[in-house]
Amino acid sequence: MKTQRIIFSPVTRLSGLLSVEVTVEKNRVKEAYAGSTMFRGYEWIMRDRHVTDAVYMTQRVCGICSLAHGAVSSYLLDDLYDNDIPENAHYLRNIMFAADFLQNHIRHFYLFSLPDYVRMPDRPPFHEQDITDVRLVEKDNRLLVEHYFAAVKAAQRSHEILAVFGGKAPHQHSFVHGGAAVSPTADKVNRALALIDSINRFIKDCMIPDTALIARVYNDYFHIGITPRRLLSFGLFRFGAKNDRVLWKGGVLSDDKLDPPEVKLIETDVTRSWFEDANVNNLTGRQPEPAPYKPDAYTWVKSVLYGGRHFEVGPLARMIINRRYDGGTSTMDRICARSLETMLIGELLENWLTKLEPGPPPIKQKTSPVKSEAVAVTDSMRGALLHSALLNGERVVGYEIITPTEWNFSPKDRQGRRGPVENALVDTAIPRPKMLFTVLGRIIRSFDPCLSCATHIINVKS
Amino acid sequence: MTREKFAAVCRKLSSRDNHALTEKLLSAVKTHRAKHNTPKLSVVWIETNDSGDNNISFMNTTFPYLGRVFAEMIDLLYSNTFMAAQGTKALAVLERAAAMQYGPFTLVVEGAIPVKDDGLYCAVARTQDRYITAFEAVTRFGKLAEHVVAVGTCASFGGPSAARPNITGSVGLSKVLPRKIINVSGCPVNPDWFVGTLAHLLMYGRPELDRFNRPALFYGFTVHRHCQRRSYFDKKDFADKLGDIECMFSKGCMGPKTGADCPYRQWVDHVNWPVKANTPCIGCTNEDFPDGSSPFFTSLSVKSPEHE
Questions:
Q1: A278 by DSSP, 3-state: which?
Q2: B303: buried, middle or exposed (CB in 10 Å: 19+, 13-18, 0-12)?
Q3: Which among A8, A123, A365 has CB closest to B241?
Q4: Is A160's CB within 8 Å of B268's CB?
Q5: What string of DSSP letters covers chain B?
Q6: Under a CB-based contact definition with an 8 Å cutoff, are residues A214 and A127 in contact?
Q7: Which of A152, A183, A452 sits opposite B51 (nearest CB)?
Q8: DSSP state letters, A118-176
Q9: Residues A142 and A208 sit within 8 Å (Cβ to Cβ)
Q10: How does pLDDT run along chain A (462 residues), one tens digit per residue?
Q11: With contact defined as beta carbons under 8 Å apart, do B119 and B151 qualify?
Q12: ipTM, 2 decimals?
């Protein structure tokens, strides 16, 4: 039997650098290896810095979801410093977080994902579009191309809301520990209200119908790229003086059983990653050093396991766990859940803007830490995100980050078990050899990969 | 529009109610292209070790919005972020660019270049038998390009990707490419700085550069010089905490040693910038960012005493 080994590289239209190797036999994907080809090592970079540098420093992990790193490191510092977050800051912070979500989801659907399903104009950067399965009628195709360019504006406006309150975007400045440094003045609120109004109209008039159209025309993708139904979320949108009230609950769904997530059940595995094999699972322990020549390794992403199993994270996991989406775990389910979530978050953002009380900056930073270690979690655009720190005084001794793309793009673990993306790829039928990259690209992008984020070392306190 | 007038317009900067720079810029490009029969600027954009924040910031460009930049200013031949092509077809585009089949091109590099361990910490793509490292790609295309632009602080100077202890041995583009490079730094770059630089290249060639090889148009003055809170500084009226309305020097502001026009131009359709949001400038356009700015909230006179 003839087995073909194929390298799909670069997988374009995503954040960061990704190469995927597959073997194909009898027009079916037999095995898949998702490989991230970039490594920066933020955990080393954070060491020996003042811990309050974490918010601005870790945002530089990621350009498309920067605020998520800023948010979770703020929660981490709030815990370390025992801050009490003023009520107005809850709204301000969540408004900024929501705005970055809208930016991310709109850009992912239109700028990254759409060229998988829509014939784009034959000019750069859309030339040489490798689309072998176009099904939209001319009129619909034309409309969706128009919406691509309308989405450019809607996403820019989402970042404008973030900049109005955060100072700039990406890598905002005002969402820091203790609250938010900006004054929610009436003019800022009004400006943001005008912006969210136009964004929400775009979501309802374009993004939702466009998603429905793609889902209808390409409905076979509800049966393609399916992962085992093991889903995990750390919850999203924190309120309360201690960031203790979570609007969208976290959970771990496995075998149709839903449990709250427990950080101590998370472990990592570097069997197939470019790191020295090391069996260390605590903050103070030795971290595995990078090993770029390691034989049999194929990625800078580590395998992340919960209770010894791989879990999918992201909008679909969040929406199913919170009973806001009732569907499967396929390529098209991931796309639909993300678009529906965009609509819900747009509505929340508008509502929170009306709850803001115009007034002084809602920020109360305490000046010294009351503990020397903490773990903070939230969901980000792509799913579960964790930061943890170990301090000596205010100096960082160890800083760990586990990003959502590490969960989804986990390489094979020591038992050879696949992570969610590899699982979704394996056993996929390729109707015609020419369609291989089209089909694989659709499955992979439905996870909204971000390799800039993913390439980090992690060690969670056990 | 003459080169001098263009520079004057850029210097005049923009404000919320007056999109003079970008509106004028685009119509100038259009007139210039028609008059001189100039094709759009062909661009090969190679992403290396970075966070992707510069391509996101580029998407935030207003007047012109991204769609018009693509339609009227540049032919973005290769870009990991934007191109519709994928896999072998994407790599074939890169090979055709190398064979000069699209004519002369401008190379844009986004990200630092790791040089340790044969550069294996960053590969821009993988072929059937090997990895194409960032080092290999940028040195090869850097030799072929008409102009080379480093976008963002990582590509310009190493930036966060090269922050201590820099275990990947990452460096800025100029350390691996012995030729004139235009550094459009920032973490991220402000879209106006980048789009403005591309417009200048298209119409007049390389802009005047400062001592860090950055377009003097945008980096020629310090943040401090034009800061709205400069009067507080002069009166030694310093903020006690983040959120205060006084000068942020006490909270670590890097404005006095940071070349950038943020106080005027501001960010994302010119709405805000860090000091206006009651936080310090962290000097993200600087050659020594982030290490030279860290700890971010410690006064410059403490973290960098020579500036006392």
A1: coil
A2: middle
A3: A365
A4: yes
A5: --HHHHHHHHHH--BTTB-HHHHHHHHHHHHHHHHHTPPPEEEEEEE-BS-SHHHHHHHT-TTTTHHHIIIIIEEEEEETTT-S--HHHHHHHHHHHHTTTT-S-EEEEESBEE-GGGGTTBEEEE-SS-EEEHHHHHHHHHHH-SEEEEESHHHHH-GGGG-TT-TT-EE-GGGT--S--EEE--SS--HHHHHHHHHHHHHHSSPPB-TTS-BHHHHSSBHHHH-TTHHHHHTT-B-SSTT-SSBGGGGT--GGG-B--HHHH-BTTTTB-TTTTTS----TTSTTTTTTT-STTS-HHHHSGGG-
A6: no
A7: A452
A8: SPPPSSTTSTT---------HHHHHHHHHHHHHHHHHHHHHHHHHHHHHSSSSS-SSEE
A9: no
A10: 689 999 999 999 999 999 999 999 999 999 999 999 999 999 899 999 999 999 999 999 998 999 999 999 999 999 999 999 999 999 999 999 999 999 999 999 999 999 999 999 999 999 999 889 999 999 999 999 999 999 999 999 999 999 999 999 999 999 999 999 999 999 999 999 999 999 999 999 999 999 999 999 999 999 999 999 999 999 999 999 999 999 999 999 999 999 999 999 999 999 999 999 866 554 444 578 999 999 999 999 999 999 999 999 999 999 999 999 999 999 999 999 999 999 999 999 999 999 999 999 999 999 999 999 999 999 999 999 999 999 999 999 999 999 999 999 999 999 999 999 999 999 999 999 999 999 999 999 999 988 876 655 444 333
A11: no
A12: 0.96
Q: Which residue has 């005008």 as its token pair?
A: A194
Task: Please indicate whether, in this complex, the C-beta atoms of A149 and B67 are within 8 angstroms of each other.
Answer: yes
Report CB contact under 8 Å: B92, A128: yes
Mutate to test the interface with A, among B272, B284, B289, B298 (most CBs of A within 10 A): B272
Considering Cα of A283, then A288, then A290, then A295, what sign does the dihedral take?
Answer: negative
Contact B227, B261 (CB under 8 A): no
Of the candidates A285, A290, A287, A314, the one whose C-alpha atom is nearest the C-alpha of residue A300 is A290
Give contacts of A 183-222 with B, CB under 8 A. Answer: 183, 191
